[in-house]
Amino acid sequence: MTKLQNNSCFSQTTIKDILSFVTIRHYKNFLFTLLFFIGIISGHSQDLPNISGQYYATPIEEVIVDFERQTDFKFFFLDEWINGVTVTKTYDNENINNALQSLFEHTSLNFYIEKNSKRIVLLENTIVYDVLPNGFFGSEEITEQNTSSPSKNNAPPPTFYTTNTQVKRNYDVAKVGKSDPNNLQESYRLTGRAINSKTGEPIPDLTIRVKGSNQITVSDTNGNYSLALPAGYNVLSIRAMGIASTDREVIMYNNGNLDLLMEEGLQQLDEVVVEADAFKNVEEAITGSEQIDSEESKNIPLVLGERDILSVAKALPGISSAGEGAMGLNVRGGKTDQNLVLLDDAVIYNPQHFFGIFQALNPFTTKGVDIYKGAIPVEFGGRLSSVFDIRTKNGNVEKFSGEGSIGPVTGNLALEIPLEKEKSSLIIGGRGAYADWILRSLDDESLSNSNASFFDGIVKYHNKINDKNEVKATAYYSRDAFSITSDSLYNYDNRLFSVRWDHRMSDKTNSALIVDNSNYGFGIDFDGESNSDFKLDYSINETELKYKLRTGLNDKNTLDYGISAKYYSVNPGNIEPDGSESDISEFAIDKEQAVEGALFIGDEITVNDKLSVNLGVRYAFFAALGEATQRTYDEGMPKNESTVQDTIAYSSGENIKTYGGPEARVSVRYLFTPDFSVKASLNNSYQFLHTLSNNTTISPIDTWKLSDLNIDAQKGYQASLGFYKNFKENEYELSIEGYYKKMENVLDFKTGANLFLNENVETQVLQGDGKAYGVEFLLKKKSGDLNGWLSYTYSRSLYRFDSEFSEERINNGEFFPSNFDKPHDVSVITNYRFTKRYSISANFVYQTGRPITYPVGTFRFNNADFVAFSDRNKFRIPDFYRLDLGLNIEGNHKKNKLAHSFVTISVYNVLGRNNPYSVFFVTDNGEVKALQSSIFSIPIPSITYNFKF
Fold it and tell me: Which of 28, 357, 579, 845 is the most exposed place for a label (fewest CB within 10 A)?
């Protein structure tokens, strides 16, 4: 055994010294002569010897010594190639060529056997060619001589790379894969993950370009990337916002993996060029998607100085709410219950505090949200309108840090605690309100005993176990309690828990196993003057198991596929007396339970440089289960007490009714130029949950109802078409997108319906059709001292409830506007920076007034006065508009400070516009009068102090 040293005749340094005296043409002739000679002497050598032996965790150097002992061959190699490598193998009279292939199978080593000279030369990622590739000497003669080996003639030429010791490199040259003479290709696939070396978090939207070509890829939300590279030497240019730009040298010998451990970079704001998302709006195939970073809400003036990504979302086209202070969001004409809101993979049923005025998310632990309102990814289901995928930050794995704020109504604090450096961390966030003092300080005596408070807390554990395994766990809880001029105390709470295990199965496949549980409930504690005190409760609970995978098949196909299962348990409501003197009788509605499942698969297809297609299918399944009692009604008749046909009792776990079917997801993008594209999508979906409410807007005491024997699953269909264009080196983004949506079995209520604590709620609701359509316009300026966006939406949202029976018909069976139908919606967000520390912000909103039902006359019947109302939602309240202004003051940026500060001074509703929240009617001395209620009818100033350490 001979270990090559730097003074050996086989030394790489010696070879380079020799080659420095000859031209490359001479070297090629020399190499050809050498290989020709080796081919001749190899062709006349004897057969190779056989090897036997058993090796268990044996250093590979000892195995080589044993091979030399059994044969007459001597091995030549560099020590550094095999240091620390052990093998477990068994050979039984195995040919040495096969034995060596097995021995070096999981290493980067190849070998060349010189039979006559009894030498075996180990080669690191190098192949000795006995047939040279086409055109190696610049002529066709070699090709003609080697027509007997077409596979090798089509292979790429050998890689010649000379290390320049004078060049200082931040990273060593990466050698990827192992050369395989039986699988020589022109290009190989490089996969890997981009990771922040300081925090351990994945880096999304990292742009990786291949220098000297137009090849480019962008890392996904988990930091994963995939790129086809030519065989041999390549230089990658790697760029991202907030990450130190760098170049990486890569030699591709075969398919392989390269993780990019990136360092954070400091950049002056006026020199930042955002490349990571530069073409994302144009290049991605899906329609109707938006992404909001939590930092985007930092400079937007919102009520009482609160950061709120959900309020920022309402400034985007196609997303609105029923009114100021209304809970829930309406997306593309859909109801509030048609949105799937996820916090770290778990459903959060009510992500807002205090009737929608504040979000129930700590802004300092929230990383951002991905919003899908058009082409929804195939892994999501169960809702008709949209998905809000909210993500929590990973904690700092390097040092203890924190962030917080103190405002007029709330206080926030988030702490990031490293547990094991560069591997695991904990982030803890807490947030509470102290609004009672505001209510008690008002002149209105009726408010002196009122109270309103809320809090939320979140804990997230993150552990990057190794390069292939990562675990995340999140626990969250929020609670609201309020009593306004009432003898009732209302409370509602969210609780969720999720665990996610990300596993890299191979260079091409990543998987995620997710387990989560969510619970939402509300209660009412009534304490009146009479003997009618009571306590009332409602809750819905769900548990989900999901397993999903992502596989990059090749340059043109990436598969997303998996399975999910969910279990629901609903307490529809119960009431009990509060105190021994209460006259209230205890009563409870039977619990509901159901299972929901899905199988899904999707393919991201890159047809060519211009055409990209996303195809997916999801099969959704739902089954309502006993123990339960269900009524049946006479077919073709309205559901009421007089048409009851039978009452069926179902035992525990017995199937009551199943729903489901296939859901298609199709999205196409065609790229006219690198900065201009057209996209189209088509999808359908099922929804098995419904909210029961007879309020104009969603409220905390709305209940969720599972589909069953008498309430069918909702169905939705949506088509969209959009054009996307970037201008002025991606400084401006412009998009125009139109959509049409059709819905079936949407719920509404009968006039005067009693929905809560009703055992037969199907007699109080109606199911009908809905349609929504619109055009969305968005213009963004992403950089410069003046930045922001302008959005405009023209949309209609209409419903129809038709029947041959008048009690199940609304507006004579014609389409009528929904409660949240607002044809015109304009939002303008602007920020102007005077210096690096001072900036001003403005937020302007204009919306068409929402529909309302007005009384149109009175009549007298049997000596009693009655009011005649118009068709439902025939009229509208006055239009809504509001202007907010803010001044943002950054603290100085000295490095050695205990904490860095940021102060926001804002005025909400600067114009003092008395925007109506609702209009209601009272009778005064026989005259019907219209009154309006408003949430914020005067300017609301606030100052918030933010700090970070």
Answer: 579
SS3 312: helix
Can you tell me the distance from the alpha carbon of 523 to that of 575, in angstroms, rounded to the nearest whole number? 10
Give 866's strand partners: 859
Cβ neighbours, 10 Å, residue 557: 12
Q: Which fold has domain 289-948?
A: Maltoporin; Chain A (2.40.170)
| Assigned token pair, 381 | 């289901």
Distance CA 29, CA 46 (A): 28
Tokens of 618: 């999801």
> Strand, coil or helix: what is 32?
helix
Three-state SS for 684-739 is: EEEECEEEECCCCCECCCCEEEECCCCCCCEEEEEEEEEEEEEECCCCEEEEEEEE
CB atoms within 10 A of CB 15: 11
Sequence ranges of the chain with CATH classification 2.40.170.20: 289-948
Domain(s) of CATH 2.60.40.4130: residues in the chain? 174-276
Going by C-alpha positions, the residue among 765, 766, 764, 762 that lies closest to residue 629 is: 762
CATH fold label, 174-276: Immunoglobulin-like (2.60.40)
The answer to whether the beta carbons of residues 846 and 881 sit under 8 Å apart is yes
Distances from the Cα of 913 to the Cα of 880, 936, 940, angstroms? 9, 8, 11
d(C-alpha 649, C-alpha 590), whole Å: 12
Instruction: Tell me the CA distances in angstroms from 364 to 395, 402, 752, 762, 836, one per residue in order.
Output: 11, 9, 44, 43, 22
Q: What is the mean pLDDT for each group of 10 consecutive residues in the chain (949 residues)?
A: 45 36 40 44 58 88 89 85 84 88 82 84 73 53 36 54 58 80 80 85 88 84 87 87 85 87 65 54 84 78 76 90 79 92 94 79 90 92 94 91 87 92 92 70 56 88 92 95 73 94 92 96 82 87 96 90 96 86 85 96 92 95 94 90 92 94 95 91 95 62 88 96 89 94 91 78 91 95 87 95 88 91 93 87 91 76 69 87 88 67 86 77 64 75 87
- Cβ distance 289 to 277 under 8 Å? no
Q: Rounded to an integer, what distance in angstroms lies between the CA atom of residue 666 and that of residue 284?
A: 13
User: How many whole angstroms separate alpha carbon 711 and alpha carbon 705?
Assistant: 9
List where CATH 3.55.50.30 sits in the chain. 2-127
Secondary structure E strands in 321-468: 330-331, 339-343, 346-347, 352-353, 358-359, 366-372, 386-392, 401-406, 410-420, 424-433, 451-466
SS3 assignment, position 60: helix
Amino acid at 5: Q
933 residue type, one letter: S
Phi and psi at residue 697, to the nearest 5°: -125, 165
CB 228 within 8 A of CB 252: no
Q: Which residues does residue 54 pair with via DSSP β-bridges, in sequence order?
A: 90
